[in-house]
């Protein structure tokens, strides 16, 4: 049903499906098709690997990995391995590297997970008839991707798709943050904030320790190189900590209020039944509170991933 005020405002931006005899062949003209086999236009199939081919997003995602790996290099080879205290190096190394792996895994899950894309070009006569609409019911289609637009869906000009509960498009993960991958994005921001804070703490300890002794005894690198590496690491950690901590807090606030960033910026009045606080958290992270909420590998099936990889060699589809 699209009788709400929210949908009446949307009617000014998205054309309604006029009648059963309306021209629905324009779906083939929508940009951003899926390359590959017979399932083109759909992203929900088991044989589909979601990936946005956006040059800016791919550069930003590569930079994210480079900066995390740079932090790993400085922490491990400049600060921890040369340290004389074995247990200090072991405990901090295990903690930092574990958090870094979780951060990169969360980044991958966010980037390669379908955020909730509406099937492209599904505004067909056959699909309309299958909905069995009651007299007077009105539904709308997105004129950009020729898809029936569900409630709370918004069109992304970069993904070239309508995304359910779209929060925003993030170039650092080269994907939209939406209904199906918001959980992984929240974990990504949390783990990046944690490793940034940890790196800052280790850098401070390293500076304090090396001031009391000769710099040559603190690192296998020369004093000048070590200082430059540590300064760059501290600047990176401060920027990442500030950005991801703010983003993490914003995401948690949005989840607890069941309101996406786009809905907040547009000041859209809710026409849906809001899931407040814990109900919203359970809906996004799945199930009651547990350590599984912090696990980015939850729901990842190795066999399915291998099938996707094998299918890609045989000409599988990519979502673009």
Uncertain runs are 1-46, 313-320
The count of helical stretches stands at 9
Strand content: 5-15%
Question: Over the alpha carbons, how many angstroms does the gyration radius reach?
Answer: 24 Å
**Largest sheet report:** 2 strands, parallel
> Which structural class do you get from the secondary structure elements?
mainly alpha
The helix-strand sequence is: HEHHHEEEEEEHHHHHE
- The pLDDT mean sits at 78
Q: What is the helical fraction, as a range of percent?
A: 40-55%
Shape: elongated
- Alpha-carbon distance between the termini? 30 Å
Using DSSP, what is the number of strands? 8
Major beta sheet, strand line-up: 1-8
Subcellular location: Membrane
Organism: Acanthochromis polyacanthus
Protein name: Palmitoyltransferase
EC number: 2.3.1.225
């Amino acid at each position: 049903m699209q009788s709400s005020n929210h949908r009446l405002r949307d009617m000014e931006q998205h054309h309604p499906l006029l009648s059963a005899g309306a021209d629905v062949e324009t779906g083939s003209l929508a940009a951003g098709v899926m390359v590959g086999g017979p399932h083109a236009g759909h992203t929900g199939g088991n044989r589909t690997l979601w990936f946005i081919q956006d040059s800016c997003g791919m550069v930003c995602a590569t930079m994210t990995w480079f900066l995390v790996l740079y932090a790993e290099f400085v922490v491990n080879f400049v600060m921890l391995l040369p340290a004389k205290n074995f247990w200090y190096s072991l405990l901090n190394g295990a903690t930092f590297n574990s958090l870094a792996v979780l951060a990169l895994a969360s980044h991958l899950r966010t980037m390669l997970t379908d955020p909730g894309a509406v099937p492209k070009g599904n505004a067909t006569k056959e699909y309309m008839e299958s909905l069995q609409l009651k007299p007077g019911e009105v539904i709308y289609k997105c004129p950009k991707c020729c898809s029936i637009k569900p409630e709370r869906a918004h069109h992304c000009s970069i993904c070239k798709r309508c995304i359910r509960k779209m929060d925003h498009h993030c170039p650092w993960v080269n994907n939209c943050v939406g209904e199906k991958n918001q959980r992984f994005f929240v974990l990504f921001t949390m783990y990046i904030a944690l490793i940034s804070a940890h790196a800052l703490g280790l850098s401070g300890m390293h500076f304090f320790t090396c001031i009391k002794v000769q710099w040559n005894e603190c690192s296998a690198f020369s004093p000048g190189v070590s200082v430059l590496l540590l300064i760059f690491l501290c600047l990176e950690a401060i920027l990442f900590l500030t950005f991801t901590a703010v983003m993490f807090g914003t995401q948690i606030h949005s989840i607890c209020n069941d309101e996406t960033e786009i809905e907040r910026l547009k000041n859209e009045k809710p026409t849906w039944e809001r899931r407040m606080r814990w109900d919203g958290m359970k809906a996004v992270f799945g199930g009651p509170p547990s350590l599984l909420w912090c696990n980015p590998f939850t729901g990842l099936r190795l066999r399915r991933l291998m099938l996707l990889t094998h299918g890609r060699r045989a000409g599988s589809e990519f979502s673009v």
